[in-house]
Amino acid sequence: MLKRLEERYKDYANVEWDYNRDNIYSMKKADIMISDFSGIVFDYTFLCNKPVMYVNTDMDLRPYDAYDLNKQLWQFSVLEKMGIKLEEKDFANIKEVIQNASDSPELAEQRKIAKETAWMNIGKAGEKIADYMISTVEKQSK
Predict the structure, then answer these.
(1) How many other C-beta atoms can be found within 10 angstroms of the C-beta atom of residue 97?
(2) How many helices and strands (H and E) does the chain possess?
(3) What are phi and psi for residue 85, nearest 5 degrees?
């Protein structure tokens, strides 16, 4: 299947196939990410501050610890706020959908909020952890 796609789009200047093990280079070059549910969505959003579109986030949680939670997981709820769910009906005007995602100040603000929520104590995490460990040991030794 991949070989067919590569052959089909080989003459398109705006299509590039990346076989590097590190995906950060492709993420920096991309203007938008279209993905299923995957942690890379958050890598892309938080590192590059660029819009994401996602498809079907239905996920069988039975094999995971989160299965018995009676609420929606943070990852899914935040994805719905900071990204655009791509549906088959959107395919006919995908260019417009992508442009709207790229130009949306609301999505940009939601990406910022998601990053601030997920990445607490940026630049001070080690210090915060050390302080917590020291205070915990001091409490236990009293």
Answers:
(1) 19
(2) 7, 3
(3) -75, 125
- Amino acid letter, residue 26: S
Q: What's the whole-model pTM score?
A: 0.68
Alpha helices per DSSP H over 14-124:
24-29, 40-48, 74-82, 94-103, 105-118
Yes or no: say if 69 and 75 are a contact pair by the CB < 8 Å rule. no
DSSP at 124:
T
Give the per-residue pLDDT at 95.
Answer: 92
Residue 71 near residue 50, CB atoms below 8 Å: no
The predicted-structure confidence for 34-73, as pLDDT tens digits, reads as follows 888 778 888 999 999 999 998 865 656 555 655 566 656 6
- Beta strands (DSSP E) in the chain are 33-35, 52-54, 83-85
